[in-house]
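## Example pair
The file below holds two records. Each record gives the amino-acid sequence first, followed by its structure token line.
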Amino acid sequence: MDWLCGPELPFWVTNETFHTNRPDLPECFQLSVLSWLPCIFLWGAFPVYLFYLKMNKKGYIMMSLLNRIKTVLGLFLWIVCWTDLFYTFHELRQGHSQQPIYFITPLVLGMTMLLATFLIQYERLRGVQSSGVLFIFWFLSVVCAIVPFRSKILMASSQSNVPDKLRFTTFYFYFGLVVCELILCCFNEKPPLFSDAVTDPNPCPETTAGFLSSVTFWWFTSLAMKGYKMPLEAKDLWSLNQRDSSKVMVPQLLKEWEKEQAKAKRYVRGGPPDESSPEEIEVLLSSQKAALHQPSFLRALIKAFGPYFLIGSAFKLLQDVITFVNPQLLRMLISFTKQQDVPDWWGYALAFLMFFTALLQTLILHHHFQYCFITGMHVRTAIIGAIYRKALVITNAAKRSSTVGEIVNLMSVDAQRFMDLTTFLNMLWSAPLQIMLALYFLWQNLGPSVLAGVAVMVLLLPFNAFIAMKTRAYQVEQMQYKDQRIKLMNEILNGIKVLKLYAWENSFKDKVLAIRQNELNVLRKTAYLGALSTMAWTSAPFLVALTTFAVYVTVDEKNILDAEKAFVSLSLFNILRFPLNMLPQVITGLVQASVSLKRIQSFLSHDELDPNSVDRKNTGTEFSVSIVNGRFTWAKEDPPVLHNINVMVPQGSLLAVVGHVGCGKSSLISALLGDMEKLEGEVSVQGLVAFVPQQAWIQNATLRDNILFGKSYDEQKYRRVLDACALTPDLEVLPGGDMTEIGEKGINLSGGQRQRVSLARALYSDADVYLLDDPLSAVDAHVSKHIFDNLIGPEGLLKGKTRILVTHGISFLPQVDNIVVMVDGRVSEMGSYVDLLKQNGAFAEFLRNYALEDLVEEDEATEDLMDEDELFPDDVLSNHTDMVDNEPVINEAKKSFLRQISILSSEGDGSRCRSVRRHGCSQRKHGEPQEKNKPQEMEKLIQAETAETGRVKTKVYVEYAKAVGLLLSVIIILLYGCQSAAAIGANIWLSQWTNDEAMNRTAENVHMRVGVYAALGIAQGVLVMISSFTLAMGNIGAARKLHFNLLANKLHTPQSFFDTTPIGRIINRFSKDIYVIDEALPSTVLMFLGTFFLSLSTMIVIISSTPFFAIVIVPLTAIYIFVQRFYVATSRQLKRLESVSRSPIYSHFSETVTGASVIRAYSRHAAFVLMSDIKVDENQKSYYPGIVSNRWLGVRIEFIGNCIVLFAALFAVIGKKSLNPGLVGLSVSYALQVTMSLNWMVRMTSDLESNIVAVERVKEYSETKTEAPWEVEDKKPPSEWPMNGNVEFHNYSVRYREGLDLVLKNLTLNVKGGEKIGIVGRTGAGKSSMTLCLFRLLEAAGGEITIDDVKIAEIGLHDLRSKLTIIPQEPVLFSGTLRMNLDPFDKYSDEDVWKALEHSHLHKFVSNQAAKLELECSEGGENLSVGQRQLVCLARALLRKTRILILDEATAAIDLETDDLIQSTIRTQFEDCTVFTIAHRLNTIMDYTRVLVLDKGQIAEFDTPTNLISQRGIFYGMAKDAGLVQ
């Protein structure tokens, strides 16, 4: 450096700097190093930063006052620096030659200031609001200028005059300007023009936050304040950053995944070169290759999200290195306290250095976490999006392999696992690095003895790994049980009504509890392992220290353990502890994620439906729908369902498809939609398709949205559609008209209404081809006639469109253009009605059976219809949950086919004039202005899920403690106290031991010292194990109790609860909340207790060694509690919002999966994907502030921890005279580890609060109002009751729920045993309600029902329900064996079951199955046709054979033959029973003893059918409509 400054300005003088009480740096050092540091930084950062700015343009910022001032100051600085330069030249001309340094430094500084000024402007143009690079530069400049600032003043005060006036002045100018620049740099520029920040109503302040604010996460404070003042709501949350939205993330992942798939395909295609080889070999080879080379989802993830993640990794690397600075500073501090004659400022400098390194480490660490968590969030968003998109297009075979529940699990659990893993993924390389560095420093400290400690660590690794592996295995097992349990719960809740009607709750409760027991057993094993591993990791650092120290002192007499060695080693061991704990956890996480990865990968690799299996382009032909030589199957490995199908449908014609149950009618429609696997043949469909499925799919949205289905609203067209579908009268009854919200699966519409809404959706969509899968089966006869005439038939709104109608109703067949008759998956005949009759084949046979009676005269029918139109407004469909009116049609089926042809001609005229008159009617009806359109106050059916707000009540903690057991809770806390005491004891003993050296008493005490140290440490380990053990046991006990109560309560809950609560919400309690109580809560409690006692013991140790510290503790604790309250209030609410916004993702998803075929048919694919994305973004909107709140908290709490380190060190320096080195080491090394535990403690407090919410939510649903008891001991009816089956209604009234109108009003009637009663009435007259009353699913609002002199209101529900039998309108099957579905309690012998199957005509079907009675029914009985399911319900009834049978419209989806079978079975098998039939086909009840006609909830007529007809009342009218009387 001599040539720079010359000989008279030395570069470094030790005596002036270190060994003096007034240290100062030499002028040469100041001019060179201190001046150049900031410049080197800026020029180094410039190229990288420039490139970054070029790549990211955020818009353009207008010139502002702030910007102008910064620029002007920058120019001034340049002038000031170059003034110095020119002054040096001036001196040169005067003859004073200066050293080179006086030329170089001002030149460099001036250039740098120009660069800084350029950057200020360039950043403005690129839209940077606050610059980190410049901030660091100005900060460095100020820091470096402080030293000359001080030394210039010292120099001036020691001499009388200032030697170099100009430079003295320019320097202070320079200093002032740099400080101003630094201050200005802290302020933000305005946001750029046209940026999101300007347009967004509630932008995230992060995008506009300044550098300092970003570094300390200060921008989050506003939300924390808001959350503290009042509970946050969804509207307070910031919008999601563009970079985190599904719109950006999902395509990013899908792009990479598609590349992967393409690569894999290329690989498989490059099959064996010998093309002529036999095909089998080729197939074999390619399948082997395919197994080898699957597309790797992992690679796709890495490519999509790796680069962003790497930034976080860089931060981590930096943090790892800085971690090791503090132990070195601790060593210097301890040696400082030993030396007597050293300047005090050393100590203070060390204390502050410790503080600053810790601070830097905190900031860097949290930025690393921020990057990792955001990556995690991106991964979750992308995975959910990918799964959703996939679920819309997978084949049916793939759907079979994963149920809805499992796919939802992929979305919730597996995506979550990835998210959790990304946060710790960096530990994979960071842990080994930290371990190596720690070992290197330890070796320096203690030499080879360290190897003893390392050996202990290495021995512990396999132990930990073993535990991790076992835990892993258990976890998989537990996941399986959990899946099973949730699947079963899902079915129970979906079929809860049936369970109640059959009194089967107990059987299913036992099934759930059996699975739960297995789940808990696995949990218990996991808990044992957990306790072991907790012990291992608590004791590990201690064992390592013990062996190392013991070996160190015994190896060599000269080795003395002094404070420096002991405590520096201890702090290094503490650093070691983290990576050693994390490694096994990360590995476990990795293994879990790899399982999830496989699951997701296999799901995403499922076959997709071939979009080209149906040719939609083919415009050349006049056939708008054609199938040529079609062979179709549901899954490639199954036998084909449809063979050799040839169907041509001319443009604009109406084709009817008829055939028996299970002959493949619906499959034909699916084949046209492209939902089946096409094995051979051609399918073409021209134009847009509308599809009405057999079971209507209704979304959870308003009625209007269900009809519009994404089309724009057109008033006139909409009204026409409603009229044609006969929905107008219904709207008048629904509480909100067409804005009524429809519950999940259309729960608050009757079956007929659902079907008509589905039809309306098809009609509104204005497609070219209409595929109607039996849409008329679910509606009343006159309604179906109305719909056929107005909508489907030759004169309907759809005339001119191509229509394919699957139907069971014979009456419409004469009016269709062509008929296809299906038999066993083949087309047996095809042609017009007349042709088929002439052929005299299967179809004619089919008709003959049903057309026995005389024909109704055509004109009479027409007049009837006119009358009926007057009645139509009354026929108002109710909005009750269970009036499903499935009414196939028989009215005109009784035509003798001999007079068919003449009738056909008259039919043509008749129908035409009829429709004209009909239109006149409808115009008359809608002439007056519609009052419907006024917005009405809507009554929401489904109440919004309440997110609890405010602090978690202490009561909840007490409830949980009670569930654990109060005594046990106290014992656990005591154990934790003892364990901390042991740990403190061991460390205090160590500090005593290190002081031996000063008194020269080392040799004789060694064995005693080592022995006691060991004893204390081992005691701690054992206590840890016992305490974790007891804790785990308590937690599992609590989990069992809470789940049991929840389940018991849900099975006792009245039906009305299930009608108003979405199933997803109840399932959420059983899955998410129970999972939290099982797994998350125990570990949180464990961590909380651990960290709490650790923090406590730290405080005790520091105060006992430096009592002064107590003064500081008060303000620090105050700040701590303050921050913690802010954080917990906000974070708890964010967690709640997050969990409330999570359910819609899953319920929307399961809705989509069930309606996938409808969504595809209408090609609404993209719209649904968008809806799902919006829901995920809503969820991430509350998750993102949650992440940031953790960072915000971490920075603040660790700052407090760093203050503790600072004060512990400062007081040690101040009390240097009275303290021995051992105590200094003890208190500072404790302080160094306190940050971590303080941070975890707040986090755990908050986690505890968020997780305990699960207990609160489960309790809430375990305490809902229950129905009457299942069994009332003192009122038990005799076991053979009811003997006769007399049923008496006495002044009976009932309503659905509190606050609704009465559905039945003051019924009084008396039914003798063995009577057959038919119940008829218009829809909504209260027919279904009568049956529900008998079962007490609805409790009386007045009056009573007695059966054989027993008042049913007084006996237990099971006693009542098990004595009645119902064949419900919607056949519900549970997954399990067929036998379980018939007899869940195993009450009957196999031969009884077979007999029941025989009578219910299922014998042939079941005995043909390989599994016979053990035939597995899939979820909801999907693998049986609807007709077969109905027959299974009949078999249940036959098996129970009680005295009273209730038949609830059980004839909906069944063709006429099956219907006759059922009717005859009931007539023979139940002839001595009392039968109530809710009938639509009047001919079924014409021979009943009496008929009850209900009207608006009251008895209108009650007598024998013959009498009623002669009375010519309502019943006569209905019979006339049906063509049963002349």
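Second record, same layout:
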Amino acid sequence: MTGGCLWTTGLLLAAVCVEVAVWANDGEAVFIREFTLIRRDHLPEEPLHDVGQKPEDPSSRTARSEEDRDTLWDAWGSWSECSRTCGGGASYSLRRCLSSKTCEGQNIKYRTCSNVDCPPDAGDFRAQQCSAHADVRFQGQYHEWLPVYNDPDNPCALKCKAKGSGLVVELAPKVLDGTRCYTESLDMCISGVCQIVGCDHELGSTVKEDNCGVCNGDGSSCRLVRGHYKSQHASGKTEDTVVVIPYKSRHVRLVLKGPDHLYVESKTLQGVKGELLLDKSGQHHLENTTLDFQKLSDKEVLRITGPLGADFTVKVQFAGGADSVVQYIYYQPIIHRWRETDFFPCSVTCGGGYQLTSAECFDLRSGRVVVDQYCHYYPENIKPKPKLQECNMEPCLASDGYKQIMPYDLYHPLPRWESSPWTACSTSCGGGIQSRSVSCVEEDMQGTITPTEEWKCLYSPKTAILQPCNTFDCPTWLAQEWSPCTVTCGQGLRYRVVLCIDHRGLHAGGCNPTTKPHIKEECLVTVPCYKSIDTLPVEAKPVWHKQAIELEEEIIVTEEPTFIPGPWQTCSRTCGAGIQQRTVKCQVLLSFSQTVADLPDDECEGVKPATSQPCYRTPCSGVSGKGKESQKEGEEEEESPKREELHDWEYEGFTECSESCGGGVQEAVVICLNKQTREAADQSLCVSSRRPPQLLQDCKTQPCPPRWETGEWSSCSTTCGVGLMTRTVVCTHRPSRDSNRTQVLRDEDCQNPKPSPVQACNRFDCPPMWDTRDWGQCSRSCGGGIQRRQVLCKQRLADGSILELPDTFCPSKSPANQQHCAKQECPPQWVTTDWSQCSVTCGNGIQRLQAVCKKHGKDGGHWTVDPENCSQMARPNRIRPCSLRLCENSVKPDPTILAQRKVYIQWKKGKKLHLVVGGYAYLLPWTTVVLRCPTRHFRKGQIQWMKDGKPLVSLSHLSITSLGYVKIQQARASDAGIYTCVAGPAQEHFILQIIGSKQKLSVPESWLLADGQQKVGQSDVASTGERYQELPISLNQYDSIVEHLLEFKGSLQDEKDISDKPHSSEKNRSTLEDESSELSGLLVLTADTHRLDEITHNLSEGLGGPGGEQLIAQLLSELTAAQDETNESTLHPPDGAESSTQGPLLYKPNIKAHTSRPRSPVIIQRSRKVTAVPSSDMTVHVGAPVLLQKPIASLELRCEALGNPDPSLTWTKNGKELHYNSRVGLLPSGSLRIQSPSKVDEGLYTCTARNRLGSTSLSSWLQITGGKGRNCVQTNGVGANGPVCSERSNSSQSAELCHGQACPFRWRVDPWSPCSTSCGGGSQTRAVRCMKGPEGRSREAGSQHCLGAGRRPSDTRLCNQLPCARWVTAHWGLCHGQCVGPSLATQHRHVYCQGTNATKVPYKMCSGIQRPISLKNCSTEACALHWRIGPWTQCTATCGRHGFQSRQVTCAHRRTGKATREHHCMWRPRPHSWQRCNILSCGRAGECRDSTRYCEKVRQLELCPLPQFKSRCCHSCRNT
């Protein structure tokens, strides 16, 4: 027993090879290697066979810690080498137990290591371990092992799957340390156990990335965006944009519900555009981003983990039908972030200075620095505070040493902001501004302050340079109440006090004198003053003067509602006619309380008293009376004649109406006019006493139009998170100005815009609150259970959206998320226990499942009770077969296959078909097929499959499941063949043919015997002198009858289309409609082989023509009647699904006449074989050959064409225009009639149908018996592939005609040659011979002898008509990715399938070609950076605790040495730039000496009293 051991390279752990013997089926022992992780220098004490033990190095152990000294453990050993050199591995450390007793705790601890990406050619670590077993036989044969990922039961076991067979085997109980437990996790297997690893690559760490992709982040660098979209098919667009998701977004999820389809467009920051058509479920790649797409029957789901490598525009393609709804959610990065700058230049060139950092606003998209306002836009962005560090620590050679010690000995104050005094305020009140200057200054030891650069002070916020001032209100004038009028009747004066009040409410100065209100004005007492002598005759007094002196009758409030007028106010004018106003209220006296209450005007009866009236005090003219006048009036009288000569008063128009509607008043305007210039002059130039009286008139008396009337706003619907306030808005109309009644009208009667009835309110974020969902279902129906509910912490934001938050954001006590339920006691019930013993001692028997009556307790347990308590429930009675050892003299039954002798004919497209071996299937291309092999006495997992005599190999679209059936996704022409199911000695075949494929199946070469003999199973496979191995079922036995069925299907639709022609009867039309509608719902026709054998036999006996068609129609009606039974195993196809196959041998397309849409012409071809018929007239459809044996009266070549618009028909003979005469002419239908055809009429007749959309042709060869000719059917339509003609050998002899078995002649065909091209349309050829004599002794004869044996089989056909397609790749994208160590980034490119005309075609067109890679590794420039370290400077002290030294640390390129910004090197720790040095004691205890060379400065500055300086300068400060 020998075996080698495989030593893997690249793994830094020794692989100890343990040979485990496994017995194979053939009796030989094979050995499987198992790898165990053992360090070379930590092998067990017992030596292995071929591995020497290395003695332990005592220096490798660290000193025992205080914790170890308290225990029995030795110190931990040094860390082992990493289990991996890249990709994340594990390292461990060991310790020994120093006692013979058991030590508490573990003797090994682990840590992660080599957390850098592996190079692209390294391969997967788990796959490497599986491939190591490729040279070891398993079950007698070698396998190529592939890894099995994400095993839920034991993720750390090495489970591998054999390529091809799908066999899954556990090759090792545990994987190597450092192997990832799951593909999408950092958790790793260590010693066979899955250990948690956080995003910080620490073992046991639970730190995870936040939604923004930041390890242990708080989610502040991105925002949650959610929304929905609804398609609008009525818009007429074919597509629409759903959402634009920006670059670097993460955790994208879109769900489309409806008939439409999603697709994605991308645009990079450089403007490069891409597109991804999501046509199937799976993973897709676009712009360095992986998209997971799931296409279901009723929805489409798109998930993108991210980050996005470009801007993605998600669009929807409209598919018609109902509108679709798309819901989406994603985390959008905050693209403008603060970034800390490098340190500014050092404050000094030597001797130790300081330098500061700042923060700049960085655009993540463009990679450029932008102005700070962009970062201030996001409240989450907090500008980092500047950092301060020491620099230029080298001593200054020619200086006094002062600056060298300042930053470290705390002598030197830091630079600070210094501000000047505030300027005076710009205003004395009402809010002004004052300013000051702020500069950065330094102060030296002598206290001298000097300005310096601003960046030195940026470590602290800059003080404000502007501030508001004098924000209090300015003083204002405040007028007091008016005094009483100075007279008791007539016109007098009244006065008031006006004060200047400041913002404190005190009387002070400062008010604008020009705005001071007047302190006196005229007043009018409505009591008239009576004079002894009237200046005017009584009859000359105006009517309003009389009203003014009449006293109003006082009206008292009573218990009945009454209008109570108030006192009249002062007249609006002091002279002339004016207006007086008063209030009129509807009031009532409440007797029980003796109080007066106001009522609406509608409660009072009678006419409401007027609220205004004209008034008149004195005339404004200067007419004198007979009484005494004052001296002033005399003076005016003397001056007036002079003024009258030039100026005088005149009326000029009216003022504007006091109301815009409902009745108002306007006053005549009086001006002083210059009589010469006719221009208005100052009123002082006219005599005031001669001013004409005031004139009033009514205006705008029409009713007011309707107007909007709004009510009060309601309270807000919510207290936070944006609510709504509502109010009533109605269109009202008031009939008159004095009326209090309003009439409500329609909204259309008021003018737009209508005031809004709603408005937003409380638009601020709500505090986080607990949101509880409904309770879930109880875990038990009785006996006490638990029900749970979801309790989430949510916050409603000011925009109305809901934000889920961590539980810590909500109030401390969370509502309960579970509670007890179903506390009632459970009734007793039957509980099943074990199975009984088998009923027999050998052979096959049964077992019964035993049951006992038990009751459920509150503690969760069960106890057994009397079975009578369960009598009301049915007792479980389950039986299962059992099989013991074989009985003596018993024979083990042989395996059998439950085959079904069926023929399946696919009638129209469907999603998936389930078929059973033992028969035939004629399927449309691109149909998914599941082929089952039911067996007895045989395990399904051991079923083997063969195709064409060779073992069946799994392909990308073809697989063999663990249950033993074959699944073919979207079958194509290459899948046709003979499938054989092998179950031990039993086997069954299944013939699969693809409709539309012109390939005839032939016997595989692997089935040929050594002597070349084969048993003939069918007539069209055998050839002369050859015998083959027996084939249980014929290959192409039912091709002919299937062809007839499919042709009949096509002709049914044809006849339905032309049933409206004049020669079709109503009876035919109705029959055809019934048949075609009955067939429209069929998916698959299923027929028994014996029934088809009968039809084939009857057809072969010469029942051609109408008789054969009758047999086909009868068969079709039988199969249709059994439609429900035959289609049980199929899925119903979607509505409107139709076959897209074109031009097959076994299938004619279903021609439908869509008269509503334009279409090119098509000629209906009738598949009837026409021979000599004893009739005076013959009608033949064009496309079939015509052979005339005897003279006939007339021959009609019928040409029926369809198209929109209706095509025109023309005829040619032998390619030339046909000349019509009295014997050869056209019928009204377009058909050709030949009277008494003779030899001169022989030739090729072609009917051409033509309209504006195209043309098509169909030909028939007319041959008179005894003459030379060809039998040719030529189809020359638009886009056809040229003529397909079969040459007839010339013969001068007359052909002997016969039918069926009576004819000794028959056609024999050879197998088809390979296709001339692999795509784009090629051709195949075969030999067709006429044979005579019985099978086995036949000989070749002339082709004319087989004319009676049916139409000559074609010797050419088209093949591989699918368009040529190839994979096309776009340019590689940018190389980017975070550089973590010397790693490699990735780049993507777009890969798509392209047709011959440079257009995108579906991926399945390129399924047979290897797809180029779309992802590869690349190297980034940033990964070539490293920290460059300079030499240490001299220590600043020789002893003590205060010495330090520094060195220069920069980030530089390895190749060029050029320095760059430090944040590019932050992927690895920055080396220290300074350190303490010479920290040894400065001498014996009590010795007084200086430990720094700056003690002289300390003594001069009188700093010795400070302890920190005195201890360092003991010698210099000893006498102070």
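Notes on the second record: Residues 350 and 392 are 5 Å apart (CA to CA). The first strand starts at residue 14 and ends at 23.
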